[in-house]
Amino acid sequence: MLWVVARRLSTRNDCPVTIPPEDTETSTEGGDRKDPVAAFGDYVRSQRKLAELSLRQLADMTSLSNPYLSKLERGLHQPSVTAVTNIAKALGVPAETLLAKAAGLVPGFDTNKTGEAKKPTTEQVIKQDPALSDDQKLALLSVYRSFVDED
To answer: pTM surpassing 0.70?
Structure first.
């Protein structure tokens, strides 16, 4: 468990005081971040890496600044709807999925015009599978694309 060490500065006493963190929800212990803004940033970073894009390349593709994207990926800034849709378009991720991540919701399946659930593409399923690491996702996508592109 992470502990925050604070120093209480006083004219009479200068002693360290150990206090527990105020918000344990954003703790990154075990890599599990429950804060929606931080989770959104983690998701964008993983999707950017899967797309093999640098932060600068993504900034150029989205017309957003490099520092702004960096803050989003680190969970330091709440994204606007326009920013989320631009990022989704650049990464090839459904905007609904990214908007749901930004809002802290679990994205579901898309629906078609008749209201029936559309099946996600194989690439979307691989990219969104939380059980796979980024390296595993890259490997699976590479193998999948090699089979599909054989035509």
So the answer is: no
